[in-house]
Design goal:
Layout lengths: L9 E2 L2 E2 L2 E4 L2 H5 L7 E6 L7 H4 L11 H5 L2 H18 E11 L4 H12 L4 E8 L14 E8 L9 H4 L5 H4 L4 E3 L2 E7 L8 E2 L2 E2 L3 H4 L4 E5 L9 E3 L19 H11 L5 E4 L6 H8 L3 E6 L2 H15 L8 E3 L5 H5 L3 H11 L3 E2 L11 E3 L22 E5 L6 H13 L4 E6 L4 H14 L2 E6 H13 L2
Helix pairs in contact: 4-5, 9-10, 10-11, 11-13, 14-15
């Protein structure tokens, strides 16, 4: 690291404003003891979830037994990670574990053992009405969030920040104001008596009729409750990125504002598309994010740029992205495709099976591709270039199939990514350009790695 570079990223011994790509257990072991102020995690039920299908992952809704084998396997997988998370917590820290019916009961027992039954704060129930409808059981319309303190009584809890706001109709009842604040008159006065006037109860009614009326002052808000009604993100929501288990920003803002203070360090070890990081930044907290998926890390980096106007390399950094072909070849095909398309600056296709030879699209720089409210498609979709990705050397048949896909999609330009290209494949790319005006731009994986390395070196 250059002298003086990224000084603002460091809080004592801890580097903040950083996204770590890789297994969170390995990353957590490198953090010092007692360095984190607030931890929120929403771990998967499968350690390789992010390697499967990043966009439109219908498997996320499969039964717990189908995904992980059994509860013991899941708990054994989570235990080392939780031990490390507990170690990094300050005495004033709080910890939030987000789960649902698949594993909540097993998780509670494990957390009691590791964090101490006496440090348990709340079982928060997040209620919502969306998603599918079941006709053979009670419909499941809530998630569970377990909250623990590192040391009960020393933990940070901003009571007023945690209070709910009153409805407008309720606020209208508080018509009067005195030196103590807004209030309404409550009591047993009878209409027509001196207690009443044409515009309502007299402000001093409680003085004339002690025991009959009194002033009820408006509090700051509704007492913090352990059940929250917050809608899920619908498919057309402006903040939705396509991540299968993306949580609403308001949910994370509620947790972070209540359980941390300005400039505190917030950690999310399974941060997916980065909702925790965005919420922490907006609330003036420092943050550390971790995710095993390179796709997720690139998506959350893009989100921080577009949503928070942060610049990668100056305001935050992404560490430990795969740098060699050998590392990338270990990823399953869909994760490899997502890495390549995101590295090119494109958008992976939501369709991961039967994609007809197109894995994603690149858009010209003058085309707006951010999703608009009420729309499920990206901006001007007529101006886009298809991308095909192969996790092996590309031969002539691969190029032929991509040509067919381009013609079907009525595109005269496309991009192809592969480990390498056979001589026949390269000759076909030249021929189709010369004879049919069909442009295919080939990239090798090593070219993309070199370009990413050069870009990071210039930060």
């Amino acid at each position: 690291m250059e002298p003086g570079r990224r000084k603002a990223f460091f809080a004592g011994e801890v580097e903040t404003s950083v996204i770590y790509c890789g297994d969170c257990l390995n990353k957590l072991q490198k953090l010092p003891d007692g360095c984190i102020d607030l931890i929120y995690i929403d771990p998967p039920f499968n350690s390789n979830r992010n390697y499967e299908l990043f966009w439109g992952d219908t498997r996320e809704r499969r039964a717990f037994e189908d995904r992980f084998g059994d509860a013991e396997h899941y708990i054994n997988w989570m235990r080392p990670c939780l031990i490390q998370l507990y170690r990094t917590m300050k005495a004033t820290s709080s910890f939030y574990y987000h789960c649902d019916w698949h594993a909540s009961h097993y998780v509670k027992v494990l957390l009691d053992l590791l964090m101490g039954f006496d440090n348990f704060l709340s079982e928060i129930v997040w209620c919502y009405r969306e998603r599918g409808i079941a006709k053979r059981w009670w419909n499941r319309k809530h998630d569970t969030i377990f909250a623990y303190a590192k040391k009960l009584g020393k933990h940070t809890f901003n009571y007023r920040e945690a209070m709910e706001s009153y409805s407008d109709d309720y606020l209208k009842k508080f018509k009067y104001v005195d030196e103590k604040g807004r209030y309404m008159i409550r009591g047993k006065g009878v209409k027509g008596s001196p207690v009443y006037k044409a515009d309502g109860l007299a402000p001093d009614a409680e003085l004339k009729y002690p025991g009959l009326t009194y002033r009820q002052y408006l509090n700051s808000g509704i007492l913090p409750l352990d059940w929250w009604i917050i809608p899920l993100l619908n498919k057309a929501a402006s903040e939705r990125l396509g991540y299968p288990t993306q949580k609403p920003l308001i949910l994370l803002e509620k947790i972070i504002s209540a359980s941390s203070n300005s400039n505190d360090i917030v950690l999310d070890a399974f941060c997916g598309c980065g909702t925790t990081l965005v919420a922490a930044h907006k609330l003036g907290r420092r943050w550390i994010g971790m995710d095993i998926s390179p796709t997720a890390c690139r998506v959350m980096a893009k989100r921080l740029k577009e949503t928070c106007n942060l610049k990668e390399g100056r305001d935050f950094i992404v560490r430990d992205m795969p740098k060699t072909i050998e590392e990338l070849l270990k990823y399953p095909p869909f994760e490899f495709q997502n890495w390549a398309i995101n590295a090119l600056g494109g958008v992976p296709s939501a369709r991961k099976v039967a994609d007809y030879g197109i894995d994603g699209y690149l858009y010209p720089s003058d085309v707006e591709i951010s999703k608009k409210e009420g729309e499920n498609l990206f901006g001007q979709i007529d101006r886009r270039f298809p991308v095909q990705v192969k996790q092996h050397p590309a031969g002539r048949p691969d190029i032929d199939k991509f040509e067919t896909a381009m013609r079907r999609d009525r595109r005269d330009k496309g991009f192809f990514v592969a480990i390498s290209y056979s001589d026949q494949a390269l000759r076909e790319i030249e021929r189709v350009q010369r004879e049919e005006c069909l442009t295919i731009i080939p990239f090798t994986v090593q070219q993309i790695i070199d370009e990413e390395t050069k870009s990071e070196g210039g930060m």
